[in-house]
Specification:
With 78 residues, the protein is an all-alpha fold. It has one domain. 73% of the residues lie in helices and 0% in strands. The protein contains 2 helices and no strands. The longest helix has 33 residues. The chain is elongated, with a radius of gyration of 18 Å. The two termini are 14 Å apart. The mean pLDDT is 85.
């Protein structure tokens, strides 16, 4: 599949398979680290103040739902 940025003359030489793979891996790592930090903050606030932060729970659940849905999508459509 041709990436839309590769059609721009200035960026055409910069966007290749390696660029797209690096972007995919970086986004995946960033998402996982964000969820880990959300879990750490949730646990800190729970154990320190005995307060459930539902916004952090929703961040983690959103990640789990999206990641699981994408795993299933790619498994059955690839």
């Amino acid at each position: 599949m041709i990436h839309p940025l590769s059609r721009i003359p200035i960026l055409g030489g910069l966007v290749d398979e390696r660029f797209l793979d690096h972007r995919r891996r970086a986004s995946s790592v960033a998402g996982i680290v964000t969820v880990i930090l959300a879990v750490v903050f949730f646990e800190y606030r729970y154990f320190r103040y005995r307060v459930w932060d539902w916004d952090l729970v929703l961040v983690v659940l959103t990640f789990v739902v999206i990641k699981t849905a994408l795993f299933a999508w790619y498994r059955f459509n690839d």
